[in-house]
Amino acid sequence: MSDLVRQPIPVPDEQSAAFWSAAADHVLALARCTHCGTRVHPAGVVCAQCLHPEPSFEFTPVDGRGTVRSWVVIRDSFLPGFRDEVPFVLVDVELDVQSDLRMIGRLLDGPDAALSQGDRVVTVFEDIAPGVAVPGFALEART
Ligand SMILES: [Zn+2]
Q1: Distance (Å) from CA 99 to ligand 1 centroid
Q2: How far, rounded to the nearest angstrom, does the alpha carbon of residue 111 sit from its chain's CA centroid?
């Protein structure tokens, strides 16, 4: 494994290619059902809201701000690519763009960040390889 690649690299499939392509440009683009407008993440093969028999999604940029629902501190790595990264924090965030639209990502403020439910976060991107970026979160400045 190259020293430059420290984490597993996402392998986009048909449903996620547009998400990863936008992420490479540091843009959070989520799937939206073209029939009912509901956003889904991760994108699936059918819209769970309208169950339209001819599923159709488009990826459009969204504001990556949201609210922390929960979190976990990862202290042990089962994947060799993360051994040098532990401990780190994964946060479960409800995005502002739609009620109940959640995304899990790494909190880039570090494992000692003082977190509370309801904390405000913004989406940020980690460049993990040339042309590959993974969305995560950072705490908004508290007032
Ligand atoms: Zn729908």
Answers
A1: 15
A2: 18
Tokens for 29, please give them: 């683009």
pTM comes to: 0.90
Using a CB cutoff of 5 Å, list residues around ligand 1, an ion.
Answer: 33, 35-36, 38, 47, 49-50
Instruction: Dig out the tokens for 75 from the structure.
Output: 């202290």
Q: How far does residue 70's CA lie from ligand 1's centre (Å)? A: 27
3-state secondary structure of 102: strand
What structural domains does the chain harbor?
12-62 (no CATH), 64-143 (2.40.50)
Alpha-carbon gap, residue 27 to 59, rounded angstroms: 11
pLDDT in tens, 76-135: 988 888 888 899 999 999 999 999 999 999 999 999 999 999 999 999 999 999 999 999
